[in-house]
Write a structure and sequence with these properties.
Layout (H helix, E strand, L loop, with lengths): L21 H38 L1 E7 L6 H12 L1 H36 L6 H10 L6 H15 L2 H9 L12 E2 L3 H4 L19 H16 L1 H9 L1 H8 L9 H6 L1 H4 L8 H6 L3 E2 L2 E10 L2 E10 L18 E7 L15 H13 L8 E7 L1 H9 L18 H19 L6 E5 L5 H23 L3
Parallel strand pairs: 1-5, 1-6, 2-3, 6-7, 7-8
Antiparallel strand pairs: 4-5
Helix pairs in contact: 2-3, 2-17, 3-5, 3-6, 6-8, 14-16
């Protein structure tokens, strides 16, 4: 009998069916369920432990923002904290600061030569009382044009290196407005150190410079060594001293320190000292994070310090860091009463600091942050007052108060305290210190007190024991 199409088997052929043991199947599934549960539980426990570790680390993380206008001393304070809590890291960076020191000197020499040309060429047509006084002081020195022309010729190779050195240190960073200088972003040290062939970051522990920066640094060093006597002669020249004393030449605050030390710096084996690191001028763009550990009462805390660019155009970059800031250290350079903002020549720098401090006190994102005010650069304030610079000439509200350090410093302190009382939205305590960031011992005493106060405040808020 023919098989019916479409059927795989004849109806007469037996079909063997596999039988299953239900009991065994249940046992196997039970085994796999229990094993999966154990694995899942183990993963959950590890995740919980990891969460607890991260939570504990987060609770022991202290975020401190250094705020203030440009050139208020924020970067110097950061280096003072680093010097106290992480000196090994600062020591590792010393060779990287060598080209920055050279740049500070090159810039100072160029500024002196430029101001000399301007003042000597325009002195005869300046009929102001101050101009006549300067002309009278310079008269005994005779005709200076030939002497300074010779000095300039010898110093041209040194001054000509300023832009190339600035460009290498800045790593291609430029600012609008045609201003020259070293403007660096966070992590600039990595940009000037050599790279590993297999990685895109700086080699740890090398302490050396990248080939491009090393080449221009070496050339700057050799040039500075060859003209160190001319730099010293220019700096100590009586005409330069007269113009400096009469405020016809204005230099960066670090310039006198390095020009006074030219013989020490102009050595083949020069390595920046701690004082050099604190005096050197380097303008940061954006926000730079620095991390180091602090031991207090047997516990370790991770201190994250944010050093921010203080120029008006950079202040918008501060806001993302406000939300969870543990503390704010606000620096106000009270020595700057006779100076105006580079980005706005109509605004007095002390007035700008007061306006900025008002904004900080009234910012809702910062209402829970510990607040420290450092009235900075008191050493420069003393020097200006001793030189006879009158505060009332620049700040009319000062009136006829005595032009002494005690009266002037108290006047500024009272104004900042008044701003805090009127505008602080959380009525928190304000801790005020008079500071000079270049005084290592005094500043580190303050750092210890401030650091402990901030951490104790943090402990109280987070419930850490």
């Amino acid at each position: 009998m023919a098989k019916r199409p479409g059927h795989a088997h004849s109806t007469s052929e037996p079909i063997l069916m596999q039988t299953f043991d239900a009991a065994n199947i249940d046992k196997e599934y039970q085994f796999y369920d229990e094993e999966a549960a154990r694995v899942s539980q183990k993963i959950d426990e590890e995740l919980k432990r990891d969460w607890v570790r991260r939570k504990d680390a987060q609770r022991r993380q202290v975020k401190v923002m250094l705020l203030g206008q440009a050139e208020s001393g924020k970067s110097t304070l950061q280096k003072q904290f680093q010097l106290y809590y992480a000196q090994h890291a600062l020591d590792h960076e010393r060779p990287l600061w060598r080209p920055v020191v050279y740049f500070n000197i090159l810039k100072a020499v160029r500024m002196i030569l430029d101001e000399l040309d301007h003042e000597l060429n325009n002195l005869s047509i300046d009929d102001s009382l101050e101009g006549q006084a300067v002309a009278h002081s310079l008269a005994p020195l005779g005709d200076l044009s030939e002497e300074f022309s010779g000095l300039r010729t010898k110093l041209v190779p040194l001054v000509a290196m300023e832009d190339s050195l600035a460009s290498e240190l800045s790593g291609g960073v430029a600012v609008t407005g045609g201003r020259t200088g070293v403007y660096v972003r966070a992590g600039w040290q990595a940009l000037v150190t050599p790279l590993s062939p297999n990685r895109s970051r700086a080699l740890p522990g090398t302490g050396g410079l990248s080939p491009a920066v090393a080449q221009v640094t070496s050339l700057a060093s050799r040039t500075l060594i060859s003209v160190q006597n001319e730099v010293d002669e220019l700096w100590k020249h009586p005409a330069v001293r007269i113009l400096l004393n009469n405020r016809r030449i204005r230099l960066d605050e670090s310039a006198p320190f390095f020009l006074d030390s030219i013989k020490r710096v102009a050595q083949p084996d020069y390595l920046p000292s701690t004082a050099d690191l604190l005096n050197v001028r380097l303008q940061t763009l954006g926000v730079a994070e620095h991390s180091f550990d602090i031991e207090l009462c047997g516990s370790r805390y991770n201190w994250l310090m944010y050093d921010v660019g203080g120029a008006r155009g950079q202040r918008h970059a501060w806001v993302p860091y406000f939300d969870d800031a543990t503390a704010i250290i606000f620096l106000a350079p009270i020595s700057a009463f006779d100076q105006y903002l580079e980005e706005d020549p109509r605004t007095n720098r002390v007035d700008d600091s007061l306006q900025l401090f008002t904004a900080i006190c009234s910012n809702k994102l910062l209402k829970n942050s510990h607040l420290v005010l450092m009235l900075n650069k008191t050493d420069l304030l003393r020097k200006k007052l001793e030189a006879g610079v009158k505060v009332r000439k620049y700040i009319t509200s000062y009136g006829d108060r005595p032009n002494t350090y005690a009266d002037v410093s108290e006047y500024f302190r009272a104004h900042f305290i008044q701003v805090h009382r009127r505008h602080d939205i959380s009525r928190r305590a304000l801790y005020v210190h008079f500071t000079s960031m270049l005084d290592i011992r005094a500043t580190q005493d303050i750092i210890v007190n401030v650091g402990e106060a901030i951490i104790r405040s943090h402990i109280a808020k987070t419930g850490l024991a």
